[in-house]
Every structure is written in structure tokens, then in C-alpha cells.
């Protein structure tokens, strides 16, 4: 190579690299690295946005990658690149005009990629299997709302597990409901064997709506969490399950789990009291740090929803005051389970669920009026998504 050149710029591949690098890119990466090895002091390799071949989200190199002296990356540094030292010596972040609000607030660009579609050869069961565990003698509507949300979202198979006392009531909501029951007014360890089989069956699990606070139910939750942790099934904990898990947070640490508390439930679960809603920066920092400490994804519901996995923080602003009615939280948790079941990670699932839940509320207010019900939300899931995609 002509020695008058001192910089070699790599712009071969972007952020979506997967698997084995194909030709002619493979040979080009080999050549760049070879030139660097032979002219170490005389030439600098500069990569545009990401070194070609490196996964910027994880820092992993599936096959081969350019070894860069400097990466000029855009908008913000990628998480994987910050821990990668073998292939990156230095990183320079440059603005491309994206406002901070676009990074912080959940938008259409966040949810649309997570709304997966069926391929031509899809068969029943491939578009997600959701298991909803909840209900008690006092509550039948909550698990029904969560299950109907999953059904109307388009999940292939949805099963609801509840105490026998409310089983027929839940079945009565819709002929689409598949309900399994255990004897009694509350779920307890008698249900564990059958639930264990359903855990293995499911792609996504939701626990909590209407499940109650009985000591026997808490004992069942502990055993379920042990099995879910072993099976590594994505999980959503909502409502009463958030209160039951407060003494067992070690069991969910590191799991692909979404917790969906409002600020009162968060206080019961963790002892953390949030500042007023207008203290956005302070509130966000507390939630971010707590998610990092617990090693979970937190979706803290409110006028603004705060979502964090301890690495990223997003705020959702969709929704309307008319949604402050019983059952909307069950719909939100059900949507989290849906996005989990269609192979999105926990953080993306929580962001998409929060955005869509609020968007459906806004849609209902527009087409129905200010007095709508939770069943109106569920019945209009498809229409709201179609409008969102237009």
C-alpha cells in the first residue's frame, strides 16, 4: 500500500450484522486488519458508526470484524461497543441532529418493529403461546381482561389458569377462552404440578391479576418462580404478584421479567417512594437505579410511564385521563406478555406495551367518547394498531 496514506476508513457494514460474513466483505475485513498489522505506526483505521462485523448491542463478533483505532459513532454510543476493547481503541460520538426527546420518549419508531407479522408458512402456535395465572374468589375480571387482550392482539394460543371457583365465570367471557382450574377459592401448591406443565408449554407467562394475597398463594408463587427461572421463560409480574414477591426479589433477579407497578405498588414491593410526577429527571434516575439493582425491567405506570432495565430509560406519554378505570392495568400487563411472546426482549416489550396501551385509550376516546370501558380497549386493539400503522 502507498505509504502516503495515513488513514483507512471502514464503512463496510452497519449495526445489523449477523452470522458469517459473506464475500467480498469478508476478504475486505481481512485486508484492512492485515494492512493495520503491517503498518501499525503509520496508518489509523477509522470505522463509521460501528466496526464492520461487530454487534454493537452486545460487543460480540459472530465471525470477524475490523479492528478500529477510532469509531465515529452517531447520536449515542452503542452499549456493546463500550465494553469492547479488542476491536475498538477509542470512540467519538457525533450528533446527527436527533433531539434528546427522540431518545427519551417512546414513539412510533419504537413500537412498529416489534409488531411482528406472520410468515406465509406460519402454523398455529408459532405466533406465541401466552399463559395467564391469576384470579381468586374475589376477582374473575382481571385475569379475563389479560387473556382477552392476548387473544385480541392475535396471539395464537392463550391459556388462563385460575381457581375453580371463578373458572366458569372466566370461560363465560368468550368462547375463545381456554381455562384450566385448580380446586379451591385461591391458587395454592395443589396447582403446582399442572402449572409446571403449562410453564413448559408457554412462550410468555403473566402472573398476578386478581390472584390475591393469601400466604398459600405466596408459597405457590415462590415455586413457580423457581421453575420459570430454570426454564428461562419471559415473565410479567403484575398486581397482587408484585406484593407477594417483595420478600423474594432474589428469585427474579436477572430473569427476562417485566414488573408493572404503579408508584404505590412499587413502594410496597421495594420500599422506594418516588418523587412527584413533575420531578421527571429525579423520578427517572430513581427508577433507572432500581431496575439496575434488581436486574429486571421496570414499567412504572402513571400519567407518564417510566420504563427501565438498568441500562436504558424511556418515558411513555400516550394515554388519557379517561383510562384511570379498573382493568386498564390488566390490559397493559397482557400487552407486555404479547410482545414477549412474539420474541421481543423485555425492555422493548415493555416500551411497546406502554405506548400501545395508551394509544388504544386515545383511539377509544376519539371514536367512542370520554366514557369507555376496559372491554372497549380490548375490543379496539386491532383497529388502533391499524390506525397506528397507517
Notable features of this structure?
390 residues; alpha/beta; Rossmann fold; UDP-N-acetylmuramoyl-L-alanine:D-glutamate ligase; 4-stranded parallel beta sheet; elongated
Q: Report the sheet-strand fraction.
A: 15-25%
Give the rounded overall mean pLDDT. Answer: 93
Q: Mind telling me which CATH architecture of the largest domain this is?
A: 3-Layer(aba) Sandwich
Residue share in helix: 25-40%
What structural class results from the helix and strand content? alpha/beta
Specify the biggest β-sheet. Answer: 9 strands, mixed
Q: Whole-number radius of gyration?
A: 24 Å
- Apparent shape: elongated
Total number of helical segments? 15
Low-confidence runs (pLDDT<50, min 5 residues)? none
Based on DSSP secondary structure assignment, what is the total number of beta strands? 13
| Overall tally of structural domains | 2
Strand order in space, largest sheet: 7-6-5-8-9-10-11-12-13
Query: Which sequence of SSEs, written as H and E, runs from N to C?
Result: EHEEHEHHEHEHEHEHEHEHHEEEHHHH
CATH class of the largest domain: Alpha Beta
CATH superfamily of the largest domain: Ribokinase
CATH topology of the largest domain: the name is: UDP-N-acetylmuramoyl-L-alanine:D-glutamate ligase
